[in-house]
Amino acid sequence: MPYPKIELHVHLEGTVQPETLLEISRRNDYALPCTTAAELRELYEFRDFAHFIDVWVLTTNALRTAEDFRQVVADYAAEAASHGAVYIEGIFSPSERIRRGVGWDEIFSGYCDGAAEARERFGVEVRLTPDIVRGFTLEEAESVVRHAAKYRDRGVVGVGLGGLEAQYPPEPYEPAFALARAEGLASVPHAGEVAGPESVRGALDALGADRLRHGIRAVEDPGLVRELAGRGTVLDVCPISNLRTRAVHSLEEHPLPALVAAGVPCSISTDDPAMFGTDLTRDCEAARSLGLDPRSFYEAGLAGALCDDATRTRLASIGETFDWPATTATLVTMQTEESDGKG
């Protein structure tokens, strides 16, 4: 039985496995640039961040109907549950789909249906946090917020900011996030991944970030790290994604241990698991290899979760009753045996 996990940072479009993408593209009569799963996996391989965005858009153009969006959530919930996930906050980028002619309600209702199915079939609580896309207009950004607010009673809990971070700083989107706060939605922007501490500062000051997606480059500014620790701002850290995108050069150089040592709570997530060749177990094991205790990143996930009080109480109970010491001992034994076997 895997230990329980809370995942706060996963792009639902980036969870779609090649085989599923082929199935959906055929259903929608959408021509992909590849005809086999193997070719798609090769296309997925990261070259640079701009290429990743291009591939992400190219492949997710296959997603057209509420049924597609429902399937994406349900399929990922099934996979994540097999890795111990009990709570997920899924990201999606509706305005990119809107530009391709898909309707707002088709998108939001499909994802919300998937979240309901995830709870009923797999026992995984899913909340949704649509992203505003950097480089899109402020009018489009505010449309995302207004439609997110419309679906608050179906599990939409916040609004994010994603896309080309280095090219588009957070400050121009301040009005959209002010609208989100007025609508009772949390602010969960990407910041501090490919851009430095100034991106984190902008997300905090201009966007009123309740939590930061990535945020790891805050480590370059000790004063900012102290502020994050003092605020208790949770960072959604995705170790393997950071390696794939070359935000860090090696796992050994990852700033995660330094951030945790400084008192910054860090949850662990996959980001775009299908496109980065990872899963929730692999990312959590990467964090554990850096010295983090699984209970600590579960508790950071709980602290950062944007759920209702009843769900928070249930998640807290899972964490409090689980036998963490026994799990840690088992993991250490397995790691030792694996090392001895290699020797």
Question: Can you describe what's shown?
Answer:
This protein is of the alpha/beta class. The protein has 17 helices and 10 strands. A 4-stranded parallel beta sheet has the order 7-8-9-10. Strands 1-2-3 form a 3-stranded parallel beta sheet. The chain has a 3-stranded parallel beta sheet with strand order 4-5-6. α4 (66-82) packs parallel to α6 and α7 packs parallel to α8 (174-182). It is globular and about 50 Å long. The protein starts with a strand and ends with a helix.
The parts where pLDDT drops under 50 for at least 5 residues are none
| Gap between N and C termini | 28 Å
- Summing up helix and strand content along with how strands pair, one would put the structural category as alpha/beta
Strand order, biggest sheet? 7-8-9-10
For the largest beta-sheet, the strand count, sense and barrel status come to: 4 strands, parallel
**Radius of gyration based on Cα positions:** 19 Å
Number of extended strands: 10
Average pLDDT rating: 94
Count of helical stretches: 17
Q: Which percent range fits the helix content?
A: 40-55%
Strand composition percent = 5-15%
Q: Output the helix-strand order.
A: EHHHHEHHEEHEHEEHEHEHHEHHHHH
Approximate shape: globular
